[in-house]
Amino acid sequence: MKTIIPVGPYHPLQEEPELFKLFCDGETVVDIEWETGYNHRGIEKINESKTFEQIFFVVERICGICSTSHPFAYANAVEEIANVNVPDRAKYIRCIIGELERLHSHLLWVGLAGHFIGYNTVFMWAWKYREPVLDLFEIITGNRNSYAMFKIGGVRRDITAQQIPAIRKILNALKPKADLLFGAVLDDPVIHMRTKGIGILTKQDVIDYCAVGPTARASGLAIDIRKDDPYAAYGMLDWKVITAQEGDVFAKAAVRFLEIYESIKIIEQSLAAIEKLPEGDISAIVKNIPVGMGCGRAEAPRGEVFHFVKSDGSNSPVRHKIRAPSYVNVATFKKSCVGQSISDATLALAAVDPCYCCTERMAFAYDAYTKKKIMDGNDLIRHSQKRTEELKRKL
Amino acid sequence: MENEELIELLQFKFKINIEKVFIQYKNRVLMQIRQEKLMKIATYLYKDQGLRFIIASAMASDDKFEIIYHFSNDKTGLIVNLQVFLPREKPEIESLVPLFVAADWIEREMHELFGIRFLNHPNLVPLLSQGNWEPNAFPYAKNQKPKA
User: Fold this and answer.
1) Interface pTM (ipTM) of the complex?
2) Each residue of A241-271: pLDDT tens digit?
3) Would you tell me the crossing angle of helices A88-116 and A249-276 to the nearest 10 degrees?
4) A333 touching B, CB under 8 A?
5) What's the gap in Å between the CA of A114 and the closest CA on chain B?
6) Tell me: the pLDDT tens digits for B99-136?
7) What's this model's pTM, rounded to 2 decimal places?
8) Total structural domains in chain A?
9) How far is it, in rounded angstroms, from Cα A76 to Cα A71?
10) Degrees (nearest 5) of the Cα angle A257, A258, A262?
């Protein structure tokens, strides 16, 4: 019996709520279709009526999880038009915020992926260790989310000398905990069985779909905007791009795990650099935005964010085009999910995009003929968790 | 290949099909091209030079539509912007989907928001509205004055 399983449409945590229809033949997913635009807010259009400064607060609200990467890319675009020299201190502070965001976003994903495969301990641990990162945000920016740190020419708030030891203390405490968590996860034989060889995306698939971020890097394509087109202080810091070759869920997880260590490294170096720079020099004066076009990019936790801004010399843009990484990554489901069983497809979907925690409220399985509901989001997760239990028993 | 080399090579290879070249800032180049040559130039960038398609930005003004296709050279950080102009009366251009799947969604979106038609697109259905917007409204095309 052929069954259609719709997953979606509303994902309040996702920047693009979508409806996925998994076409299943028995246990196997044979095709996938999607509908998008359920939460189309017309932000590109709204921005045409906002001033360049106001847009920071709009773009920050595109996505709750990566609420810094959009202002980051937008600032890069506008600063390109106005040819602004951002002070070094502001560049390092921007890097710190960007990397803290990657830390909390990756930890969030690890927790959710753990929950999907029935490892709720992983979920509890990962989210417990994510909490101090959010506290760090509160120390530095005053907010746990939507940090409002960016402005044209620099940042709004400085990191003071008194804050630096507190930041270091929390980061140092995070490292052994991350070691413990990742050691436990990456050595677990059941997790290996659940994630290895699942949702494989080959290098050619990534090139065809122009996928970005950890999705591309896990398939052996070393693209990272921080390295390829360095912005802020990334060109002045020592870190490396993490890649894996397999392209499966395990590789995507491993890339994210290792990126957490790189992020900590970047933050530590930035803090050391800040200490040597004069306090208070965090913003350049920008009087007006001339006529021109700017392409700004930033590496969000999920991949490249791209902002295109066209200015006609007035105080608001003529056109502001935004491309979030999920826009290209989500399309790869057609390759990664087809041929998988339903319980693995849930994981393959989750592997590309971490914003999946609301599945239980929006995924329903309907019988294709009778339209009777046979499975909801909870069932899907239970289904996936049952599979893990079976594997555990087999071992 | 260095950025300057690639730009020179493009100009040499496509000559008159590239009408104007602006080197904007470091690592950014804008090329105004003839719209019928888009496929050829895009194929060269994507297939031969290994550039990645980022996205396309459409814009509307009183007399024309404008699309900028953004390509990224991930080895050097260069963004190649291919700019085409389309007349308002007949906004049509060849689809890039036969070349790479990544153009699928954005072309559907531009079709829906601006009314630009993409020839040879396999599935030019609305991406965002689920068909429940007013037909032929094209909200970003700026052909209607906002209601008071």
Assistant:
1) 0.92
2) 999 999 998 999 899 999 999 999 999 999 9
3) 150
4) no
5) 30
6) 999 999 899 989 988 999 999 999 898 887 776 778 77
7) 0.89
8) 2
9) 8
10) 125
